[in-house]
Amino acid sequence: xxxxxxxxxxxxxxxxxxxxxxxxxxxxxxxxxxxxxxxxxxxxxxxxxxxxxxxxxxxxxxxxxxxxxxxxxxxxxxxxxxxxxxxxxxxxxxxxxxxxxxxxxxxxxxxxxxxxxxxxxxxxxxxxxxxxxxxxxxxxxxxxxxxxxxxxxxxxxxxxxxxxxxxxxxxxxxxxxxxxxxxxxxxxxxxxxxxxxxxxxxxxxxxxxxxxxxxxxxxxxxxxxxxxxxxxxxxxxxxxxxxxxxxxxxxxxxxxxxxxxxxxxxxxxxxxxxxxxxxxxx
Amino acid sequence: xxxxxxxxxxxxxxxxxxxxxxxxxxxxxxxxxxxxxxxxxxxxxxxxxxxxxxxxxxxxxxxxxxxxxxxxxxxxxxxxxxxxxxxxxxxxxxxxxxxxxxxxxxxxxxxxxxxxxxxxxxxxxxxxxxxxxxxxxxxxxxxxxxxxxxxxxxxxxxxxxxxxxxxxxxxxxxxxxxxxxxxxxxxxxxxxxxxxxxxxxxxxxxxxxxxxxxxxxxxxxxxxxxxxxxxxxxxxxxxxxxxxxxxxxxxxxxxxxxxxxxxxxxxxxxxxxxxxxxxxxxxxxxxxxxxxxxxxxxxxxxxxxxxxxxxxxxxx
Lengths: 282, 316
Hints:
Chain A has 282 residues and is an alpha/beta fold. Chain A has helices spanning 31-36, 52-59, 85-96, 130-146, 164-184, 198-201, 224-231, 242-247, 257-271, 273-276, and strands at residues 19-21, 28-30, 65-67, 71-73, 102-109, 112-119, 150-156, 188-196, 210-213, 253-254. In chain B, strands 1, 2, 3, 4, 5, 6, 7 and 8 form an eight-stranded mixed β-sheet that branches.
């Protein structure tokens, strides 16, 4: 049982089997063992998607505190495609036990107090609507005011179409939020996980001081299918994967999930060192 | 290109135009007929353009004869000097940028340009920028800040270009950095959606103190085609998608995303670009006048508050 259970509502009872198959190497894996291994395939290092809850537990200590849960989604456009947006929201909330696609938590990463903003792909594709924007914006304000480092762990298909233009505006809003951190010299680190696309990628994800990514994560602005349709040719192997972006100079580090916590700690302890001890280099 | 719903109107328009010319040559007998036709034309236009549905507006916004950024620059500004390149990779011709006089005031002008002829459209990549386009925009905006010039942007793009090179050179990073730069610009800024405001590629030039939108322009998080394909799983549901997305100027004003709607002449901007430009000039003058009365701090705070309060949610 996870330490954060009291913060997250119980997920709907799932008839989850105890076994799963690695999509990469096709090995049959025992679920509890996989979870203990941070959802990384022990055979081929395939990184299974992690829920927001699992992610928080993997990075922060026990006494973490959930923030901004009082901000909840609405349906401003009364959007309806094959299904009303309201129903989609309800369904997503039931399926994930989350109130929205972004969870903001404040807690300790070893001995550094940080704020962590984590996305969950199972909540309507980790898409960014007004609530994701507002929660992130408030996290930025909080971090700027209290000079706390902000880490965001991202997985998203992009802006949430069901909120129309308002979701597009969240790109501007979150980018302005990052500005508060830049102004105050507060570290802002982003971890891009599979997948990080569209409006989220082109706003707060790529505004990190340091941008990390999990191995083989799909990262980009336009989706590979859209690109293929536009240019009418096949995309090269490994295109838009984390390693490809590293080679092109678009991200700083590709980090294995097992080393993520240590890497973040290492980086943050250096980035906050001078401030913590009230020193200046000059 | 003539759209289905504007056929009748255009026929009548041409007739009136012909008569007007004859009348001006001194044929006073035609006066009665001309007046009658003009009345009829106005009535027809009102009827036609009142009942436009969002999809019709999408077609109008993409109309090939609709005035583009360079048309407005030529009609509204003087002494335009275009600046090129991102100092890094190349010059993206789908974004034009430079300095010009607005009335007697030097300003920076930046905008998407789709191009007119087929050849020009190709050169300008149909107004779909690569990262270097946004980096050029950032560079010129920063220069404007250095020279204390107001910045005026024109938005008219189907979206940022989805291609291999664009991704390799960091389309996401370029757009994100553009959002940040325009968000924190220390000089007054006005953005005008003149045609198609397509997603992040449009927003990258539309973070400004005042956001204006032409009456028949559209501004959306995704194209109706894209939305139909993803949510309806059916490319033909574009009408439903364009209705659901709330992408017209009237919708956006209601949602608080834009500040003013710039009215278009009867029959939309492509029928009378000169008139369109004159109306836009009036609105630009008004906005700049409002903004010039504020100091840097107010300009910055106002813009941050404007975009910081975007969104609709429940707070318990």
